[in-house]
# Entry
Amino acid sequence: MNRIKVLVVDDSVFMQRVIKKVLEKNEKTEVAAVAGDGLQALEILKKREIDVVTMDIRMPRMDGFEALKAIMDTKPVPVIMISSYTKKGAEDTIRYLETGAVDFITKPSLNRANDLQRFERELNIKIAVAATARLIGPLPEKRPAIQPPGTTITHERVLRHVIAIGCSTGGPKALQQVLQVIPGSIEGAVLVVQHMPPGFTRSLAERLDAVCQLKVKEAQHYETVRAGYCYIAPGDYHMRVFADREEGIRIALDKGAIISGHRPSVDALFESVSDIEAEKVVAVILTGMGSDGSRGIVKLKQKRDCVTIAQDRDTSIVFGMPGSAIKTGFVDKVTALGDIGEEILKSLEVL
# Structure
């Protein structure tokens, strides 16, 4: 069996040792080389065949962002960023994912019980997934929202439609491409579950809000779902929707048991959407590892009329979630990422 050859890039000797210890315990991986900064990493990539790179964000001489851009431009290889829990770390991470990083993992905290075990588990999983990932490259130029003829953006609109989206690895980049196409004038709302830890989902929402017509925000407990908005499930909270006699549709957040291996879970969101009243419902599964969302799609299709869409293999960084959903037989359309936004609008019959 060929082991996954990993290049560890970090200026911290402590983190180098932590990562090396994890990889050396795993019979499926090997530490092919270690670099203390981006420049050293680029030199190693010129000479060695590397399957996956783990890279710190902040380093001397050439930081992670410059190194990532250079790797994507010269010798593309799957890169997993090693990030911090700080707000700045979260903002940087979203930018790195847009630039071409496959995924990220947060540094272990010595102040949190069992966090080294969490780091080891996530690192092994994400390296295995990254080794099979399809590299899509940086985001294309911003796409303008598709504005249906005769529509205008108003503050008070009736909420008629619900769009529910689930994603994981590669999701931030895919979400941006999809959401940019949806006009702020839509008489519908978007609900998103993206597998991310606490703190990072807020930065993701802020970034998407800056480049989309929709008002994108991190969801809050019990808030009313409004047309023209996109709600991102906060990290470590399930997001569900429920009917309220006075307010219409509202959001409920909880820290209940992990579902389908995740919290937040796409299955939890989709199953709750199956119980609300809406003229049209569209459920979308984008790139990601695992099978979260498949059970929810089955429940949705069995309980109500709706349209289900999955991202195709060729444009998915990781085809796990879309592929699993397609295997259920309950996906109506398999679509390239660049066409999903328009496909959603067609399903709502607004085009």
The chain has eleven helices and 14 strands. The radius of gyration is 20 Å.
